[in-house]
Design goal:
The chain is mainly α and 237 residues long. It has a domain of 123 residues. The chain is built from nine helices and four strands. Strands 1-2 form a two-stranded antiparallel sheet. A two-stranded antiparallel ribbon has the order 3-4. It is globular.
Length: 237
């Protein structure tokens, strides 16, 4: 008969590997509550990009007009939507041009933001998750390195954590800059597939950078608390 172990209120068969793994994942997720909150918020927003078009009637929004970034262009349209769709599309409106030919379509409606930004939000979740499970450090560059695959981490470690972190962010954002400025300065028009492919590394390093900053702050706070505890202990008679 196989042994059983109790974890919380559940009974799991086996040698305790499953509850141990689950406990370890939960510990990493909750180690920095700020990082967990950012990850949850970004996951909810990412899901909303695909759910919002399903909550309104087909063909409710398809923008053939050039909107502007950081401008609320279609408030009159959003007022006709149910509350959830109104909130998501409004927030997308103030971020994005919302051009139909640069956006994916679902349920006869274009998504709240264009293909590149959608890709960036999707892959930002991967970057945030990488920061969650990276070995903590008190500097952002070290956490960024620790969030990368081991082979890449070893190669970049030779130039130092601070420089390596900067290189990772620069390389991740470079495809977006090249594709975006080429469209801006030439007759070239990118495709949605290209926008997804260039947005993916940018979203990943963006999420990893934000997550690494939160991890480094949390680690620094813990190190300061430990230092104070040692001083207090040494000061006792």
């Amino acid at each position: 008969m196989r042994a059983s172990v109790t974890w919380g209120k559940g009974i799991f068969p086996g040698n305790g590997l499953l509850p141990s793994m689950a406990s370890g994942v939960w510990t990493r997720l909750t180690w920095s509550r700020a990082l967990l909150a950012v990850l949850v918020l970004n996951l909810v927003w990412t899901a909303s990009l695909f759910l919002a078009p399903l909550t309104v009637a087909p063909d409710s929004f398809y923008d053939e007009i050039r909107g502007g970034a950081n401008v609320l262009d279609f408030a009159a349209v959003w007022e006709t939507f149910p509350l959830y769709g109104r909130l998501v599309y409004t927030f997308g409106d103030v971020q994005c041009h919302q051009l139909a030919y640069r956006s994916f379509e679902l349920n006869g409606n274009q998504l709240p933001i264009d293909a590149r930004m959608t890709s960036m939000y999707v892959f930002a979740n991967v970057g945030l998750a990488a920061a969650v499970f990276a070995k903590p450090a008190s500097t952002t560059g070290e956490v960024i390195l620790n969030g990368l695959p081991s082979s890449l981490r070893r190669a970049l470690a030779r130039i130092g954590a601070a420089r390596a972190g900067g290189v990772v962010v620069f390389v991740g954002l470079l495809p977006i800059a090249v594709d975006g400025f080429t469209q801006l300065l030439t007759p070239y028009e990118s495709t949605n597939l290209t926008r997804v492919l260039t947005g993916a590394p940018g979203g990943f390093v963006g999420g990893l950078l934000v997550g690494a900053m939160l991890v480094s702050v949390r680690q620094l706070v813990l190190e300061i608390e430990a230092f104070r505890a040692r001083l207090e202990s040494a000061a006792r008679p």
